[in-house]
Amino acid sequence: MKATQLSVFLENKEGRLADVTKILAENDINIRALFIADTSDFGILRMIVDKPKKAVDILKENQFTVNETDVVAVELLDKPGSLAKVLGVLNDNSLNIEYLYCFLDTERNAAVDVMRIEDIGRAIDILQGAGVKLLSGADLHEL
Amino acid sequence: MIWNKEIEMMPREKLEALQLERLRETVRRVYENVPMYKKRFDEAGLGPDSIKTLDDLQKFPFTLKTDLRDNYPFGIFAVPMKDIVRLHASSGTTGKSTVVGYTKNDIDAWSELMARTLTAAGTSNGDVVHNAYGYGLFTGGLGVHYGAERVGASVIPISGGNTKRQITIMKDFGSTILACTPSYALYLAEVAEEVGLKNGDLKLKAGVFGAEPWTNSMRKDIEERLHILAIDIYGLSEVIGPGVAYECPEKDGLHVGEDHFIVEVIDPETGKRLPPGEKGELVFTTITKEAIPVIRYRTRDISAINFEQCACGRTIARMDRVTGRTDDMLIIRGVNVFPSQIESVLMEIDGTEPHYQLIVDRIGQLDMLEVQVEVGEKFFSDEVRLLEAFENKIKGEIESALNISVDVKLVEPKTIQRSEGKAKRVIDRRSLS
Predict the structure, then answer these.
(1) Which of residues 42 through 81 in chain A touch B, CB cutoff 8 A?
(2) Looking at domain B335-428, does it have CATH number 3.30.300.30?
(3) What confidence tens digit (pLDDT) does each residue in B167-187 have?
(4) Would you identify the CATH topology of the domain B5-326?
(5) What's the whole-number average pLDDT of chain B?
(6) Cα Rg of chain A (Å, integer)
């Protein structure tokens, strides 16, 4: 139930994000979710796209440093307390989250949380055991 | 003021006779005591008696920095260790530094040369010398220190760093002579202005500045802001350290300690000696040094020489202010930096040849070195803390190899300029003209 996220290294300079999105657009790749972690010098662009393999190839061709990262995506009811419950489960099991970002699926009244967790295999088992709905890569990319 | 009128104003004929006698002795000594020189002289068909006139020196092979490194640490010492009283070292390109040793007589000669240097800048026994050159393996600190003591001045061995405290001490102790790198002198001036020091709070009257390239406009700036006479001094540890050559208040070239060294300027391509006034590479032969005599040491520094008498009365040769180098060595805050040193550090971290670029700039008055490293897939991580840790690791390893602080910046692949397939490694934005 792992999903694939693309991580792209970006220098903190004008136009780089625009360049990435333009290259993806020209190749008919849809971005499902996007999040940037930045420092004063550089940023790391994290994306969920509909065609990850193709996106990686194209970005590499265009000389971006890009890698694929395994993440866990959970689908939650869009209401107070949903995320707190999931994080409580992870915390009880001493699972550390490296980072997390969310987006809404308004059609289904759902919130999707994408998490990068160190021990991803164990995290998946524990979340499934706790009845949390996980999205597969295919689910996530097709949303 | 002139410290040693007998030597510094000696008629050239007499000076050259002295040089010839000392050169013959030196050639004999290295032939007998240093296997490297014996081998080279034998190969060139030269022997201990091949010096008949000073011009015969041109027949002798050059000594390079790599010769010192290849014989690390003591391979070209001409005396046994029991006669060595001091060791200094400078940074090298491959982690191995260049080691130089001094006998008691060498220290004595060096002190004499630095006494001449400080005296030329107006130092006498009533002065307080604020010595902000680094003390340690670097020759700057102790070189100035011994010279100032020889003159009889009061030395403040403050070394580098802690600039605000330096200013307090200069003010409270009444420092009159400043010794440091020119960029540090400007930085001191800047900080002195920041802390609200007024004209007259300091008693400084002159400064001896060297160990890095600087220009006349920097000199003007230092002189106006610190209200002092700024004197250029030159030296390198392979020859003896600071004191090899020094300006007088005429500021019309640096006087070479010709009773201790023979100076030549050569065409760096052909190795042929150039006539006075023509720019080329400076080459020094030591003629009194006991621990490490060097025969025709190539400095890589670009200058020209002039044998005419100076308006100050000195008859010893003058060399032009050094305007550049024949190799890719950078001098940053007085420290010699070769791009290859940084390359070897990066190669050890990554295991493969990395793409990097060095950006040198002078921000405010201080030289800054930024090392840009392309982020390859091999060490790219999607976690900021890992990339930052990587950045810090590179910074730490470069700093421990070079002994100067650097900024490391991770950049995207292929962003570093490449010309004809070869990366342009150094961008020096310091303007020295």
Answers:
(1) 42, 44, 46, 63-67, 69
(2) yes
(3) 999 999 999 999 999 888 988
(4) Rossmann fold (3.40.50)
(5) 90
(6) 16
